[in-house]
Here is the input.
Amino acid sequence: MLRELMHGPCSFGELRGRLPTLTAKVLTDRLGELVAQGLVAKVRLSGFPVRTSYRLTDAGMELRPLLIALYSTGSRVLAALAPRDE
Here is the structure.
């Protein structure tokens, strides 16, 4: 979720589309935890129907370099473990 929100604010439906392996309940629970931890902000948008948008807070954005490093390291490890065609 943090990775997806690094690209900018998303609605619940957008996050569901980008993370299809997560159930709605798991997504709701994890978003709630991230909001409670101060890493994600939940913003209610005006209009009808009411829409909700999620975005990273400043604290959430501070995790960006760490997440990029984890992704990069994981990609290298997976590449090293992959069988090679010879």
Summary: The chain has a mean pLDDT of 92.
